[in-house]
Amino acid sequence: MAGLIKRGKKYYLVFHEGQKEKRMSLGTESLQIAKEKKRQFESKKLAGHSSPLPTKTSLSTILDKYVDYIATRKTPKSVQSDVYYLRGMFGVICRGLEITSLKRKQGRRKAKVSKDRGDARKNMPKIEARYLEDITVAQISEFVSETVRIKGLAPKTANHNIKILL
Questions:
Q1: Residue 107 forms part of a structural domain
Q2: Are 90 and 63 in contact (CB under 8 A)?
Q3: Residue 66: alpha-carbon gap to chain centroid
Q4: Same domain for 64 and 130?
Q5: Domain total in the chain
Q6: Distance CA 90, CA 152 (A)
Q7: Do 85 and 151 fall within a single domain?
Q8: HSE-up of residue 73 (Cα within 13 Å, Cβ side)
Q9: 17 phi and psi, to 5 degrees?
Q10: CA–CA separation, 112 vs 54, rounded Å?
């Protein structure tokens, strides 16, 4: 059986694992949401799940595995395109999102450098999250709207950014 306690504004789930008492933040200030999370925890525990607690999956690990997966399923150009979009969303946070080709192609221009802003690519918004579970719909929505505003993207391109995240 689990219980709820409130510390400051946040609710915590209190439960026993063996002889030890454990506490887990539910990340909410609402009593109703905390009760629902407690109910879900207890039902998963009764169903025999080994760990009904939410996991913390490193975003860099997920992106690395995703890039490796799409490399086996898609054409090299399609993989390159998807990695480009992911790099724009999260930055270079893992090996899979690094720029692999450093050769400059004939006729390719350098990034525009404004005297007052510096390199325009560095000022682009990014989705800041350490774990996959930390990414919210609000972050994605804000990223897409800011990118559309700054770059003047077409709706199809904005939807493509969302599609890659799903």
A1: no
A2: yes
A3: 13
A4: yes
A5: 2
A6: 19
A7: yes
A8: 7
A9: -120, 105
A10: 43
